[in-house]
Write a structure and sequence with these properties.
By secondary structure, the protein is an alpha+beta fold. The protein has three domains: 7-252, HIV Type 1 Reverse Transcriptase, subunit A, domain 1 (HIV Type 1 Reverse Transcriptase, Chain A, domain 1, Roll), CATH 3.10.10; 263-338, no CATH class; 343-475, Nucleotidyltransferase, domain 5 (2-Layer Sandwich). It has 18 helices and 22 strands. The chain has helices at 7-19, 62-77, 112-117, 128-133, 157-160, 184-195, 197-202, 219-235, 268-275, 283-295, 303-306, 308-312, 324-338, 398-412, 414-417, 430-434, 442-452, 466-475, and strands at 24-25, 38-39, 82-84, 92-93, 95-99, 105-109, 140-146, 154-155, 164-166, 171-173, 205-208, 211-216, 240-249, 252-254, 257-259, 263-266, 343-344, 352-358, 362-373, 376-388, 422-426, 458-462. The protein has a five-stranded mixed sheet with strand order 1-13-7-12-11. Helix 1 (7-19) runs parallel beside helix 8 (219-235). The radius of gyration is 26 Å and the shape is globular. The two termini are 35 Å apart.
Length: 478
């Protein structure tokens, strides 16, 4: 609960929470099950599932056995696991204790073999970028998590026999959807969308798998919407983790970011965990490091260009080795991560500014916007995009190379630029002449056709050196 809430606001909030107290549960209470949403795993009929095989339990030290037994007993008490007979003909796999949030851990089934025979569920998962931009200009935010997520969904009886794990003392079966099953996120997202269809269509409720975010502009509306969500959750027997709720905040953590009223920042706690790790010693560690950074690429200027040498050593044909050049690139990226500026939430009623440039190493571009903040006009970045130059593009002439960023960015930033007015700012006159070139070659002709969609909303301004100077000022904190 937001500590800055007034006494009256706290009182009203507690009244709502008490009314719907049955929608909440703690870690050691029984889960669900959510009613009306049984989950079935469809197997690929073109690839028959292999015959039944038995696997022995993995060897484990006394401490590992104690930890595993503790996790198993917790899941049995919650109704997530049940013991099955040893003489049953079953396909079994091993459980894995996986590190989780806040130094906690959870049991994940090692269902890799089953997942290869499972028909993919293509139900759409919301894109993080779109989810976060929905929080623009919201003055009151509440976030909630359903307790233990997937475990609240029930499996059909015929599916349960496919999801069994073996330990040193018994074989267990999942009556609920486990962590580690291929389509678990899709099943849960579908269930959540089916439970809250009206709220999602009205645009004030955001659901990302088991994360629930309520957006409001006033306190009275916040209480009304919170009551609606809790009422529907209680109606399907969904349990929400009270420990992971944040009620009535102007800013909070969501999807690895810090969400403010008008801007978005990187969660420094997640960054600190990565920065404490030593320099990667093999390809797996380097790919993990780059994967983490890639999640925040829209906050990082010239990310792909800075990481070029690091991506190169992850190739199968390349022998891993941290040269001085790669160590310097690694340190530059770490510094960029710690100094990443806040990016603005897009205001769809205001025009955008698009700064672009190309160099021998790659394309570096920034989408900006001028917004009204405290009755003042301020300009700031909405997102950064970058990529490396492809081998065929490296042979382009100077004019084509300067036009390439525009064509690529219009495709990459379509989410922001479609049906929006924007100004393209470049330090090369060739971009302006591209649109009016007569008798272009086939490559330029394709570019002209791609740009036609945006001609009515786009203006191009030539300002020598503007892009470079502006980004240097931003990096310096000006």
């Amino acid at each position: 609960m937001n500590p800055s809430l007034s006494f009256r606001m706290r009182h009203d909030l507690i009244d709502v929470l008490y009314t719907y107290k049955n929608a909440f549960a703690s870690d050691n209470e029984s889960l669900g099950p959510i009613e009306g949403h049984e989950v079935d795993i469809a197997l690929n009929i073109d690839r028959p599932y292999p015959p039944v095989c038995r696997r022995p339990a993995d060897p484990a030290s006394p401490r590992a056995r104690e930890s595993l037994e503790k996790h198993i007993q917790e899941l049995i008490q919650l109704g997530v696991l049940r013991k099955v007979g040893h003489n049953e003909e079953v396909e079994v796999t091993k459980p894995v204790i996986s590190p989780w949030n806040n130094s906690k851990s959870r049991t994940v089934g090692y269902f890799r073999a089953l997942n290869t025979y499972t028909v993919p569920d293509r139900y759409p998962i919301p894109r993080n970028q779109e989810t976060l931009t929905q929080l623009s200009n919201v003055k009151c935010i509440t976030s909630m998590d359903s307790l233990k997520g997937f475990h609240q969904n029930v499996l059909t009886p015929k599916t349960r026999k496919l999801l069994r794990i073996i330990t040193h003392c018994a074989i267990y079966e999942y009556p609920r959807v486990p962590f580690g099953s291929k389509n678990s996120p899709s099943h849960y997202q579908r269930m959540m969308n089916t439970t809250f269809p009206t709220e999602l269509s009205e645009g004030w409720l955001i659901i990302y798998i088991n994360d629930i975010i309520i957006c409001c502009d006033s306190w009275s509306l916040h209480l009304e919407r919170l009551a609606r969500v809790l009422d529907k959750a209680r109606g399907v027997n969904m349990k929400i983790s009270l420990k992971r709720c944040n009620f009535g905040f102007e800013e909070l953590k969501a999807l690895g970011h810090i969400v403010f009223v008008l801007s978005l920042g990187i969660d420094k706690n997640k960054v600190a965990e990565v920065l404490l790790k030593p320099i990667p010693h093999n390809k797996k560690e380097m790919m993990s490091f780059l994967g983490f950074l890639s999640y925040y690429r829209q906050n990082l200027k010239d990310f792909e260009i800075l990481a070029k040498s690091l991506y190169r050593i992850c190739d199968q044909q390349t022998v891993f080795g941290m040269t001085q050049e790669r160590i310097e690139a690694y340190e530059k990226i770490r510094k960029a991560l710690t100094e990443a500026p806040l990016i603005l939430m897009p205001d769809w009623n205001m025009p955008f500014k698009f700064y672009m440039d190309a160099c021998g190493d790659g394309l570096g571009e920034a989408l900006h916007q001028v917004q009204i903040n405290d009755e003042k006009l301020t300009e700031g970045p909405v997102c950064y995009i970058s990529r490396q130059i492809k081998p065929t593009e490296a042979r382009y002439g100077a004019s084509q190379m300067e036009c390439l960023p525009l064509v690529w960015a219009l495709e990459k930033l379509h989410y922001y630029l479609y049906d929006s007015f924007f100004e393209v700012i470049t330090d090369c006159n060739a971009v302006k002449s591209l649109l009016n070139m007569k008798n272009p070659n086939r490559n330029i002709l394709r570019w002209q056709i791609a740009i036609q969609e945006y001609r009515g909303n786009m203006t191009i301004a030539h300002k020598a050196g503007t892009f470079t100077r502006m980004l240097m000022d931003l990096a310096g904190g000006n």
